[in-house]
Design a protein that fits this description.
The chain is 70% helix and 0% strand. By secondary structure, it is mostly helical.
């Protein structure tokens, strides 16, 4: 009779499991609220007759709850600094250049498929109204957009990928479970059609996100992820 023993998790693995559960539960709760009130929130945020500030803060609050709040709670709970996840000068240039290279197929697809309508970094649904609200409002509002839709959205991928990779390490140099799962998560919330163009969209999006996270892994620098969401993903 074979003697099977339940594998005992190390203290570090248990911590990583808790970290991932905290992030998952916060994100699920945020998506649940959006599912229940999303149509009303979207209508509110698009209503130009309402002051731009409550609309911007409402949109930013939900975006941050989905992509940012979870990792923030974990870092506070574990007393971890954001810098420890690759926000440093070393290899920052390599990380940004490597990330840009990974996004080239996606950018080419957007342009060649006729979907390119202009380069608009830091632009969301309320941005046109920010431009009309005065220079101070425009500057502060744009900074909020940069922090929430740029920094936290990109950094969120980097942190979650690192947690998953440490919890479920693979010996392969080209396959990383954290990068793979985060890439598939990103694709799930990226509208893709299952036709010829849709398959190209899927492939180029996969290359962009997976490549970005593999660049982060090998450079140990997360600024490439932040750059991608500031100046590429949410800009074209």
């Amino acid at each position: 009779m074979t003697n099977t023993k339940k594998r005992t998790l190390t203290p570090e693995q248990k911590k990583l499991d808790v970290n991932l559960w905290i992030i998952a539960l916060i994100s699920i709760a945020a998506y649940g609220l959006y599912g229940a009130f999303g149509s009303g929130i979207m209508a509110f945020c698009k209503d130009s007759s309402i002051s731009v500030w409550p609309r911007l803060l409402a949109a930013a609050g939900f975006e941050y709850a989905v992509a940012g709040l979870g990792i923030t709670v974990v870092c506070i709970f574990r007393k971890l600094s954001f810098v420890s996840f690759g926000l440093k000068k070393a290899n920052a240039f390599k990380a940004v250049i490597g990330t840009i290279i990974c996004f080239i197929p996606y950018i080419a697809y957007i342009v060649l498929s006729g979907q390119f309508e202009g380069y608009e970094p830091l632009s969301i649904m309320v941005t046109p109204d920010l431009h009309k609200a005065g220079i101070l409002t425009e500057i502060i509002g744009t900074l909020i957009i940069a922090v929430v839709w740029g920094f936290f959205e990109g950094f969120n991928y980097a942190v979650i990928a690192e947690f998953i990779s440490k919890r479920y390490p693979l010996k392969s140099k080209i396959l990383d479970l954290g990068a793979l799962i985060c890439t598939l998560m990103g694709i799930m919330f990226h509208p893709i059609h299952f036709d010829a163009l849709g398959l190209i969209d899927f492939a180029t999006t996969f290359v962009a996100l997976y490549g970005m996270l593999m660049v982060r892994k090998y450079t140990k620098n997360s600024w490439g992820c932040v750059f991608a969401f500031l100046f590429i993903w949410n800009a074209i």
